[in-house]
Each structure stands twice: as C-alpha cells, then as structure tokens.
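In this section we walk through a basic example: taking a raw amino acid sequence and producing a predicted 3D structure, encoded as discrete structure tokens. The instruction is simple. Fold the sequence below.
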Amino acid sequence: MVPTLIGVALGFVLAVGWEMVRNALTRARRDAAVLEAAIAEIDAARATAANNQQLARDDMSVVKSKGDDIVNPLDPVEGGFWDVIKYDPPRGLTVDPAALARVRDVARRTDQVNEMIRAREAFKSSQAKPADFQTGDRLVAYDALIDMFSAQLIEKLDALKPAVEAAQQRRPMLVRLARTARMIALQRPVD
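The resulting token sequence is shown next.
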C-alpha cells in the first residue's frame, strides 16, 4: 500500500511539474512571438506616420501657395496592437518599467494622431468649397498639428524599438534550453 501511495504521489508531482514546464514554454514562445510582432508593428507605424507627415507637409505647401484643394487622404496609424502589450505584456518587457511606460505613451500618441486625422478628414469632406481662404487656413492648421503629432509619435516609436529588441534578448532559460535541444535533435544523423 505504501509503495502505491508513493508511486501515485510521485506521478502527481511529475505531472504537475511537466505541466508547469509546458506552460512556461508556451508562455515564452508567445512572448517571443509578441515581441517579434511588436518590432514589425513599430516599423509599420513609423512608416505610416512618416508618410502622413510628408503628405500633410505637401498639402500645407499646396494650400499656402495655390489655395488648391487638398487631395491627399491620410492613413490612420494602426494602434490596436499596443493594447495587447499593455494588458498582457511579455515578460521581457516587465523587467523594464520604462519600456512599459513607452508602450503606453506610443498607444496614447497613436490615438492622438488618429483622432486628428479623423477630424481633418471629417472637416475636409464637410466643406462645400474646400479652396476658400478660411477653409484652407483651417486645413493648414490641421495639417500642422498632424505634422507635429506625427513627429512626436515617430520619436516615441524610435525610443520604444530598442527596449523591445532588448526584451527579445532576455529569453527565459527554458526557451533557450528547448531551442538548444531542438537544434541538437535536428543535427543528429538519420539512420
């Protein structure tokens, strides 16, 4: 009876231990995927913000010089991904509280730029005569704000990227061991 109880207890401990290791590996793989996607998201958001900034500058020069209609619609900057990181941050980012603050700042500034773009587009489409003097001045004001907010967003994205890259380097020991074991298994000759 005692050996049976010891066997059951040992089996239980091993099952719980295996489940803990499996969950840790799953979490580590998820964190690595989220961090990799975050870098891609930073690059995409930066490219969109830079494009919007250039379009806004082009539109300002056209309106100021010719008084022509603005033809460049601006693209919203994707921002939903930052919520994923804010609400369930990868463990590599939780080590650095400043990195989490940067994520919150990027999310806030992304929303700010998007709201300004929505307001500009709504104003532009609601005007019967877009080329009149007062409308042109208002559109230039919108474009100036978008230019300024986009520059701030780009600056914050550039500051966030090294923190995310550093978080990628902080891989848990289990992930490194699993990767090493996989590499060793792949290098064995096939019989």
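Looking at the output, two observations stand out. DSSP finds six helices and no strands in the chain. The radius of gyration is 26 Å. In the next section we compare this with other chains.
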